[in-house]
Write a structure and sequence with these properties.
Blueprint (H helix, E strand, L loop, with lengths): L1 E14 L4 E2 L2 E2 L4 E3 L7 H13 L5 H4 L13 H13 L3 E10 L9 H12 L6 E6 L5 H4 L3 E11 L3
Parallel strand pairs: 5-6
Antiparallel strand pairs: 1-4, 1-7, 2-3, 5-7
Helix pairs in contact: 1-3, 3-4
Bound molecules: magnesium ion.
The site of magnesium ion (MG) has 5 residues, from β1 and α1.
């Protein structure tokens, strides 16, 4: 049985934080604020995989009130999602994601992001799709106040 899930995440851009997306540290004057490393791309992908399983969302498994996840690298969330797929006897098929950021330019980092995400999901980079777009200067993303990510994931589960 083929299952799909959807995920969305947004974090605020603030001074004094590293900008980490898809496990890649990207040079930029601001970074994403959050309890963990605030990797919005990995969070959206995690929710998409959990959604495909019909599981609770990332906040259910990794509450931001739990000190264990303070500053945590978000790859641990993807590793747990992949573990849940395997525990159900499932097989990860693919993920496709879009990053929405006015600045900085993310395209040069996409190949590295795919590698980091594939490793965390125990998958191959060719199973990971990532695109980057701007928000045409509109709204909070256009004003560079935050960065958003959306993702879909597909998994095969036994009948
Ligand atoms: Mg998040």
């Amino acid at each position: 049985m083929t299952r799909v899930g959807i995920g969305y995440d947004v974090h605020q851009l603030v001074a004094g934080r590293k900008l980490i997306l898809g496990g890649v540290e990207i040079p930029h004057p601001k970074g994403l604020d959050g309890h963990s490393d605030a990797d919005a791309l990995m969070h959206a992908i995690c929710d998409a995989v959990l959604g495909a399983l019909g599981e609770g969302d990332i906040g259910h498994f990794f509450p931001n009130t739990d000190p264990r996840w303070k500053g945590a690298p978000s790859k641990v969330f993807l590793q747990e999602a992949a573990r849940l797929v395997a525990a159900r006897g499932g097989r990860f098929v693919n993920v496709d994601a879009s990053l929405i950021a006015q600045q900085p330019k993310l395209a040069p980092h996409i190949a590295a992001m795919k590698t980091h995400i594939a490793i965390a999901l125990n998958a191959n980079p060719d199973q990971i799709g990532i695109k980057a777009t701007t928000n045409e200067h509109l709204g909070f993303i256009g004003r560079e106040e935050g960065i958003a990510a959306m993702a879909v994931a597909s998994v095969e589960l036994p009948e």
